Amino acid sequence: MEPISPSCESPLLSHVSTNIVKDGSTDLQGRPVSRFLTGGWPASLLIIGVEIAERLAYYGISANLITYLTNVMQQTTATAAKNVNVWSGVASMLPLLGAFVADSYLGRYWTILLSSLVYLLGLICLTLSASLPSFSPPPCEDASYFCPRPSAFQVGFFFISLYLVALGQGGHKPCLQAFGADQFDEEDPTERKYKISFFNWWPFGICSGLFVSVSVILYIQENVGWGLGFGIPTMAMTIALTVFFCGTKMYRHKCPSTSPFIRIAQVFVAAIRKRNLSVLSQGQRVYVNQDAFRGETRKLLPTNQFRFLDKATVAIDLDHEQKTSIDWKLCTITQVEEVKLVLRLLPIWVACLMYGVVYAQSPTFFTKQGSTMDRRIIGDFKIPAATLQSFISLSVIVLVPVYDRIFVPLARGITGNDRGITLLQRIGVGMFSSILSMIIAAMTEMKRLQAAKEYGLIDMPNETIPLSIFWLVPQYILFGISEVFTMIGLQDYFYDQMPDTMRSLGIALYLSVLGIGSFLSSILISIIEELNSRGKRQDWFANNLNKAHLDYFYWLLAALSALFLGIYVSFASCFIYKKVESNVCKDEEIH
């Protein structure tokens, strides 16, 4: 199957005019684009605006999902937490599929547009499931606390709607961020610095959407109605889709390339076929094919890691080969180096998985913790427990400008690095902050349990513990600090260090850290539940949180995170960053 858009017959543009973008970007019809009429901050700010509306929609569903599952769908705390984790995991893993489709066939623009329609359909169905009596379970009886259980049809319709949202997000999420970064020309020094700032400001947009969701929509969901509470995210997504479509003429596009998985497979097949050859020696010919540079203007310089793969570039008996067979017997240096890049990224990806497990706690157990505490702020006005997630957003909103405008210039003057500190240093600082967050969460939970014991509320799960919910604020703020460093660092790292033709896949790999982390969190909960039931020990995740021991769980996560941080540091210390030769503007020859 050939890529359908944009049509890029001549991606290596001649640089006759300084007005033309130099990195091979085109318009939707595959024509060269002007630097002054397309892309840059105007286009990327529009895309950030789309992300704000989309994140408002997503967090309007996800931030309070555990409350809906326990209060409306009548699930236990542990079951609801596992369902939220599995759904979040699927939503974070599907971007791998969306990125593959975008990078190989449709291009980012069309993938975003089509997946947004699926996303919107899921939101509409979700709103119907919470609004129409035939689709939603009957309300609880206040006097007796009796809550009728939903029918199989109601449960099925709700979860189908929920996973339609996950499917739509799978195409939308990895492509939109990569598409925003594509609006800056990497061959232009000024725009290259703007791209670094773009990755800092992107989470600012995400957290703006999250802040509105948790401060307004969650209150509406718990105090006005779930139908309206899900309807507002639906309207936000409609606005996002409309705004995105209206900016079509402003965007710069990258050409879809050959499937990244095929390119990777070709290198391994070619290297295995030549396994008996010695590693490249001087005088052996290296094959370079113009088609290998479809959709890219830069080639990668050779490195000394994974030398076995270099055998794929040795040219032997090519005189009468057809192109289709050559592709699986001989590869370009750039193609081999692309595979090396991916292999170098994998250890870092594995070492960051524990961060994904910790990240999964904020919308699940943190929220359930807060639901048992005193949530009053003025008089008898109570805030939803999930509202405290806004402190993560506020931390990011405050710290991103400080980081981008103050820290980076100061650090740049000391280190000489355009980013101030390296990407891997930035990620490591955030991982350390997430460990502190788990330690503070465990200590706060111990205080909450002590308060329940002192006031005789151990056996009264529906009573409010006289301990302010704002005791949870420090763990949320530390979470926000970790986002500024680790989350933004991971986004930039997996975009920057992936091959140019696989950058949507790079964003998807970053998202998969959170997806796998959610799955691992769900598996960890199941293992602990099984061990507790076998030994007849106290349940860490009892429905009555006053008898549960979330503090044990948080201490366990802190210990595991410290272990993984040590592994991460050892991998990061020997990581080799991508080496690029820019401005490849003419065909290479066999030499």
TrEMBL record:
Give the matching InterPro entries. Answer: MFS_trans_sf, NRT1/PTR, POT_fam, PTR2_symporter_CS
* Keywords associated with the record: Membrane, Phosphoprotein, Transmembrane, Transmembrane helix
Q: What's its membrane topology?
A: Multi-pass membrane protein
Classification via PROSITE patterns: PTR2_1
Q: Which GO terms describe its molecular function?
A: dipeptide transmembrane transporter activity; tripeptide transmembrane transporter activity
Q: Which Gene3D superfamilies match?
A: MFS general substrate transporter like domains
Mainly resides where? membrane
Per its UniProt entry, which superkingdom is the organism in?
Eukaryota
- Cited Pfam families: PTR2 (PF00854)
Q: Which family does it belong to?
A: Belongs to the major facilitator superfamily. Proton-dependent oligopeptide transporter (POT/PTR) (TC 2.A.17) family.
Q: What is this protein called?
A: Protein NRT1/ PTR FAMILY 5.10-like
Recite the lineage of the species. Answer: Eukaryota, Viridiplantae, Streptophyta, Embryophyta, Tracheophyta
